[in-house]
Amino acid sequence: MKRRDLLAGTGAALLLMSSRLPADSPGEPSMYGLIGKMKAVTGQREALIALMLEDVGAMPGCLGYVVARDPADADGIWITEVWDSAASHKASLSLPAVQRVIARAKPLIAGFGEHFETEPVGGHGLARTPA
Fold this sequence. Notes:
Number of strands: 4
Distance between the termini: 11 Å
CATH topology: Alpha-Beta Plaits
Helix content: 25-40%
């Protein structure tokens, strides 16, 4: 998988989970992070993962996006996102390409598990060597 695909992939899963976003503190811009578990309809995990990794084009402010299989749950996936701000994440909800992916993903989602909002402070990008 190309790194561009991971970074440009849609945050549709967590956009569906996030009904309320905190406002940025005045004068203190901080990164905004989301980590959440999603349950696919039985037998649809790989199809849901494929949708979550679709390239939806430019997502201003999206610094990182990772989709992972839950090794302990055959229908579970975890999605981790890092944004330059909560406002950028919220603005991504209005992107037409994101809205289309959300609509296509809904029938494949059985439910949501844990959901955490974070304030990232740093880290490193993903690099995967070919197998």
